[in-house]
């Protein structure tokens, strides 16, 4: 197997950018030249290590490690198929159920099952694989943008709350797990992981204190900043919004060299005070720029040496491109990697390309990848629905990494070192090209998802159930919901879900606004845990219901038919993205209502409520 680049340098003197970059390129070259060989070995390694796990015995795999037997014997699965096994592990069963190595923790995916976050098993060594993928990003980037090692990155990185399963395993998001690991905290000197945010500010669990201190350090060191970013576009925009609200306090701290007393976390205070010195000139400069009426180009004005914005703007995050373009005067938007809680997948080898042209090269050492061909059946909503279980014939249709066809779409299926076997990730990818013999994929969409603002992924069924629960508030007024649709409104910061409702009102008592507000809240309470967490942490705004004139949905149908939809098969889409349709709906809004408060949310799964949540 090709050697992973080994960054063991301890200090600035022994660090050679050229040497490290060379190793990374050699690794990429090696694994993309012989992806099939690497994949075969990865699968054999996973299967031989785990030969004795209960899951294999159950399905009749008896120690064989070849692809053919594996594919013939093992089913292609979704989360629900292994939920019982996951629950046993979560409850404390330490026997080798799915993996011979101990499950070290669960990574809480933003995908949900039954309204709760999915729990993805992981093992200690996976941290090494994640670090490996990270180590490839800057060598690739530095090929396109020189001299990045001469300055800093201003990245807004955050940890989220974590909880413990009844059996005592930690359950937390993958990035929280990574930032808290020694791989991140004790990373050896590397000019490419030289951030303006001290580790303590990233590791602070209070999101206000974390954001405030990271922004303060980023502003104070503005001249050194060569690149800025966050994980998702929505997170970066939230940081700009924070600056809009709090720049006077931040300027005061820079002017006086003191830290606002709302920052009470002692380790954060200590780390910031090592950086901050009184600097009235910097404070004047920031005040001058922030007090201008227009915030257009604020990123390039405040951090003038910035070369690009490093955020994911592929998939649903593409809805934030216009806002980022506005704040940055069109700086390049760079999507460097594609990853998930299940496993990290790949990197973008052409990071300066347009967001619409981004493709990710899957790194064949990360996991064993298979691809399920996709037939598109719904161009209007851009969502793809696929059966949750596959028949025997469909199970045989999966192809290997090197057998995918240019231009075709596939659902990604992974077999990981941590105990997921032929697991459907739920992402739809299209083959856009090849690096040597390794395919490169454009991210098309997440299967079945209709609405998303931040990490939330709401599917049509969840939305339908939530609307059904809310509708009950209309019964006393003899009113019925006749049609509805939705869209993710990202013109507000944070973005929010909007539902267009058309009603049939028979009763004579007018429906008071408070009833519609109750409807909004009931929908929010009925949505999944990731949505509700987003609301509580203010990364998603209050849900809005817009009541439209009667006859609006007929107009929508007429419009869809004029665009070529079949009259016989027409169904009102449950989510709309096409701007003229949103305009058509907005032009017929009679009144609108917002959720009056946040829905309830607690860390961890509902059924673990007896277990103390960690901060
Ligand atoms: P999670 O399991 O919560 O970490 O979410 C992982 C999911 O986020 C993936 O399966 C994708 O649906 C989405 N995702 C991750 N990286 C990207 C990317 N670069 N572009 C688009 N979507 C992404």
TrEMBL record:
GH3 C-terminal domain mapped to chain residues: 462-578
Gene Ontology annotations for the cellular component aspect, listed alphabetically: cytoplasm
Record-annotated GH3 middle domain positions: 360-446
Keyword presence, Cell membrane: no
InterPro entries documented for this protein: GH3 (IPR004993), GH3_C (IPR055378), GH3_M (IPR055377)
UniProtKB keywords: Ligase
Keyword check for Ligase: yes
Molecular function in Gene Ontology: indole-3-acetic acid amido synthetase activity
One Pfam family recorded for the sequence: GH3
Entry similarity comment: Belongs to the IAA-amido conjugating enzyme family.
Name of the featured protein: Indole-3-acetic acid-amido synthetase GH3.6-like
